[in-house]
């Protein structure tokens, strides 16, 4: 009786799976399972090559390794795309042109990783020696050898720098193409591949590479494979990114540090002045009180608003995981919050705390502000709103240390270094026909919800693709949310890698 | 005609001087002038002995040197006063008991100095190699040899660690006794001498020394010779000191640093929380807004209020010198400000600024507060007022890093480490007969105003003299205000040393 029930349950589940997932998607999955041993061996070889900016020679080794992968998989016209000169880290390009195809998809991932401090990694780990664990270290995963039979449990994890961010992206894209080819599936779009090597360094030469190779890189859509899936484990698509810029503020008080006894109460305290200035920038309910801060914002479209309502709430889960108090803005959800411009204090410093503290009135107080922008905001205009607010608080604003003359003239002086670089937000409409097809294709790989996010909270220079190529973009992340990207103990959950191959393969078969 | 005028002018001035200054004072001055070569040679020998806490052996050498000075000058019962054990730095004691005297004065100075960082000193200087300059370095003074004829210009300066703070005090006291003795002047009070060796280290063992030697140290008044004269150059007397204590505050947000893009606007920012909390502690007019902060304050007496009105204003001079804006409290003078309790931010820190800054939401934000107290304030009660204010701002207050349970329970969490040590303020009444005599004696050494300050802004553990000896105290500083005490390039203006000898000598002749 018990056995029968199980069998019945299995059949019901299988039916549900089949009803939600396309035959093509399942073929890619099967092919990936059969090829798992080769895929993982190639992936670990890839992870063994250090990929940090401090070591540009090894970044070129990564690029060469990727060219080899592409050539092996039958991708054509494989080449390095250099910036203005050849002393910067190149992107890797390849293509599969489909006879008769009128449209082109271009798949993006990056092969460079964040810097590593091995001392911060778990003692069992070495950043560029990939290792297999039965689960995450947090959940007491144990180290096991890579299996000889090619049978992998989806919950297992590979630990190494770049395992998720973003060599998993490179690997998923290339193995997706390999799987559709080996499964006899035929793309109807031209496929192009673009793997960047300077993403973690701020994409310093991406503009030059795009501008120089604009014709080669013509496409109808960039598919950005980077970042994690939803915290709930569901697949998700990002239609945009927030923009970003910074301001450095320094408030000036006395020229020399003063004894807090002999002058305390009388001489102005720059830390208190800065505290009051920063506090003036937010209302009691956490909203930014700077005049016009929320102006310029282009409201979400009906489709985007509808999508936002469908985003599963992870607020309670994240509050517990982070041990944090109430959200900064009253009654706001995480997904609502990231669709608004933000003002964040990255750091603040004046005098000394801890063992170096002394009873003094410091001479200056400094804060670094991070401004995130949404569609409609202009990063220079947003900086100016903050500067105008500070002027409204009675400050004389300068971009240098104040002169004696300025000190004698103005009671309140602040130096503001507005970052000369900024990124505007980017958002692709959910209503574009090609975007609707992408959403449908990803939905066809899962029987679970696909989370549609109008924007991610973070920033990527996607405006460069708009600027130099007039191209649309969509981000299709594949890594597990707890992958420790940018930090120690980076890892990829194997099922996320396998699911990622399936997702990318399905997108390559867009109709 | 011209010559005649000058002569007349001289006679008028000389008459004015004579009318204000006592014959005894002038005798001490004459004796000091005659003995200047010996005094300066002994002083420079004294300054050559390093006197920093890092070198306790050389501190004992200083103590031995002082014992030699005292014995040479005919002071009796010279001895070291040890703390509970002999591994701490001793005080040096001596006395001159006057037959028939019913009252006793005890003269205090300290022989230890602040730490030195020779790299921060002017290249022409070495901290423990005293050198003579024609003026202060700021005013382009040049190095000259010590004159063989013993003729010193009062504007010349000796540069060395301890030159003003406070070996000048030791030197002025001992040479004052030498001068009155050599001038045939007779004290009517018993005279005692007490030279501390741990003042710059926080007088860590002063309580033990006072308690252990309470009987030996019996007196009617402690005369504390430390610190600078008024910024105007006038002599001044301090009747008290502010008290002092500290609080370390740490506000907690998320357990791990967060990406300011993915979580900015949603996750609470501890730097902003701390800024808002600190800003809540002051009114717009700069007054502390913490409930009851100015309660407990014992108002100044009529004499003290009258004295305060007579303090020459240095506000405009100091504002220019410090290049500062308006005073923290609206429409307040420096001398009024130091007669109120204060709340000062010594330091504040969260995340990073400058090159280490990154787009993150920090996990914590820390500030160190310094509370200065006036008579009537109790340091523990003053700490509690701040703690209660913070609770009133919705914070859960803990003395440890918060537990997960506390994080889940309280939206706003702060760790407060209230310094377990504090000093209450001390103020001696200007109306005591012995204080009136001291004021009169100092006035008799000058034809200029003597500035009477009810309190100094800084803190000294004068409450210890009250606690262990039930003793009254008065501070009689002698150094020039621009002596760079506690910093590099410490110096004494010679006229301040000579005037100091005259002041101390006149006090030893109190009637």
Task: Describe the protein's architecture and organization.
2 copies of one chain form a homodimer. With 511 residues, chain A is an alpha/beta fold. Chain A folds into 2 domains: 18-241 and 425-508, 3-Layer(aba) Sandwich (Aminopeptidase), CATH 3.40.630; 244-297 and 341-418, 2-Layer Sandwich (Alpha-Beta Plaits), CATH 3.30.70. The first copy, chain A, has helices at 2-20, 23-34, 36-47, 56-72, 167-182, 206-212, 260-263, 270-279, 302-310, 315-322, 334-337, 379-392, 404-409, 433-443, 463-469, 494-508, and strands spanning 76-81, 91-96, 104-110, 131-133, 143-144, 157-159, 190-196, 221-224, 236-238, 240-241, 243-252, 258-259, 342-351, 360-361, 364-373, 396-398, 413-418, 426-427, 451-453, 473-475, 491-493. In chain A, the strands form 6 sheets. Chain A has a 6-stranded mixed beta sheet, with helices on one face. The longest helix of chain A is centred in the N-terminal third of the chain and has 19 residues, at 2-20. The first copy, chain A, starts with a helix and ends with a helix. Chains A, B: This is M20/M25/M40 family metallo-hydrolase. Chains A, B: Residues 251-391 form the Peptidase M20 dimerisation domain. Chains A, B: It comes from Flavobacterium muglaense.
Main pleated sheet of chain A: 6 strands, mixed
What does the oligomeric state look like here? Answer: homodimer
Q: Which structural category do the helix and sheet elements of chain A fall into?
A: alpha/beta
Query: Looking at the structure, what is the overall shape of chain A?
Result: globular
- The radius of gyration of chain A is 26 Å
Instruction: Please indicate the count of domains of chain A.
Output: 2
């Amino acid at each position: 009786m018990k056995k029968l029930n199980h069998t019945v349950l299995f059949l019901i589940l299988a039916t549900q799976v089949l009803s939600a997932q396309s035959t093509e998607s399942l073929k890619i999955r099967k092919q990936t399972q059969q090829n798992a041993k080769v895929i993982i061996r190639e992936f670990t070889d890839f992870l063994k090559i250090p990929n940090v900016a401090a070591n540009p020679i090894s970044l070129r080794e990564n690029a060469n390794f990727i060219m080899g992968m592409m050539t092996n998989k039958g991708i054509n016209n494989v080449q390095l795309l250099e910036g203005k000169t050849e002393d910067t880290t190149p992107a890797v390009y390849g293509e599969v042109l489909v006879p008769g195809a009128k449209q082109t998809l271009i798949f993006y991932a990056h092969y460079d990783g964040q810097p590593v401090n091995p001392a911060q990694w778990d003692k069992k780990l070495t950043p560029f020696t990939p290792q297999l664990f039965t689960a995450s270290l947090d959940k007491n995963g144990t180290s096991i050898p890579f299996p000889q039979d090619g049978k992998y449990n989806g919950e297992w994890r590979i630990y190494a720098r770049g395992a998720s961010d973003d060599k998993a992206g490179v690997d998923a894209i290339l193995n997706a193409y390999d799987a559709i080819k080996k499964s006899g599936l035929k793309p109807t779009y031209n496929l192009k591949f673009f793997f960047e090597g300077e993403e973690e360094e701020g994409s310093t030469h991406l503009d030059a590479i795009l501008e120089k190779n604009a014709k080669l890189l013509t496409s109808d859509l960039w598919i950005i494979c980077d970042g994690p899936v939803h915290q709930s484990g569901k697949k998700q698509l990002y239609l945009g990114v927030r923009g970003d810029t910074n301001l450095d503020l320094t408030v000036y008080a006395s020229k020399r540090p003063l004894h807090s006894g002999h002058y305390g109460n009388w001489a102005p305290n720059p830390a208190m002045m800065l505290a009051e200035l920063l506090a003036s920038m937010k209302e009691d309910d956490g909203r930014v009180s700077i005049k016009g801060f929320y102006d310029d914002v282009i409201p979400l479209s009906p489709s985007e608003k509808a999508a936002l309502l469908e985003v599963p709430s992870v607020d309670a889960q994240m509050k517990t995981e982070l041990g944090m108090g109430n959200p900064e803005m009253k009654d706001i959800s995480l997904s609502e919050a990231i669709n608004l411009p933000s003002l964040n204090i990255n750091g603040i410093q004046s005098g000394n705390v801890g063992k170096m503290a002394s009873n003094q009135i410091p001479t200056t107080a400094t804060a670094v502000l991070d401004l995130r922008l949404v569609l409609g905001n202009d990063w220079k205009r947003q900086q100016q709103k903050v500067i105008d607010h500070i002027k409204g608080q009675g400050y004389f604003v300068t971009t240098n240390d104040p002169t004696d003359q300025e000190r004698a003239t103005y009671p309140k002086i602040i130096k503001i270094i507005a970052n000369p670089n900024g990124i505007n937000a980017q958002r692709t409409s959910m209503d574009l026909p090609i975007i609707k097809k992408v959403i449908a294709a990803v939905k066809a790989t899962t029987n679970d919800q696909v989370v549609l996010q109008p924007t991610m909270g973070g920033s990527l220079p996607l405006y460069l693709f708009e600027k130099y190529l007039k191209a649309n973009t969509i981000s299709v992340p594949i890594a597990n949310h707890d992958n420790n990207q940018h930090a120690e103990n980076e890892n990829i959950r194997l099922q996320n890698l396998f699911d990622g191959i399936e997702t990318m393969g399905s997108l390559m078969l867009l109709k």
